[in-house]
Amino acid sequence: MTVNAQEDIKEWHFHVYFMQDNVESKAKALELHAELERKTKSGDFVAVPLKTINFVPRGPHLIGSFETWVPIEYFATLYQWFLLNRQGLSILVHPLTREEVRDHSERAVWMGTPLPLDLSKLTTFLDKVPAQYPEYKLGYSKS
Q: Tens of pLDDT along 28-84?
């Protein structure tokens, strides 16, 4: 089963990449992460940067990175915010569906320079859509 035109994508990930051994690149990423946390706590938008910042390659991501989850209700707001504030860092934007490989490749878009990914680390087809943060009652968890 694949996503079709009758199904809406309700949650997204933004992966911010940085050169983990470059002090300036790492500082920019940490600053973005901290600002995202502040804006979410203040209620400016709902976007959850994962607490874990990858200072080494992790999963399909071959350099330093961190992930931010956003429900569709705040997608445009976060997309615009990243466009204006990414500080030259590359950002992978992809939907969350049951098809991880397609989500990270043919369904993905990049802000900045596209970077290689190791798609062999991903699952081709998941049993269910990976709904995240149901406490917000947004995205796939909207009632």
A: 999 999 999 999 999 999 999 999 999 999 999 999 999 999 999 999 999 999 999
* Type of residue at 123: T
Residue ranges of domains in the chain: 17-141
The kind and range of the H/E element at 12 are strand 11-18
3-state DSSP assignment of residue 17 = strand
Give 68-124 pLDDT, tens digit per residue. Answer: 999 999 999 999 999 999 999 999 999 999 999 999 999 999 999 999 999 999 999
Q: Which fold has domain 17-141?
A: Alpha-Beta Plaits (3.30.70)
SS3 109: strand
The Cα–Cα gap between 14 and 67 comes to: 6
In terms of phi and psi (left: phi > 0; alpha: psi -120 to 50; beta: otherwise), the region of 105 is: alpha
Q: How far is 26 from 51, CA to CA, in rounded Å?
A: 15
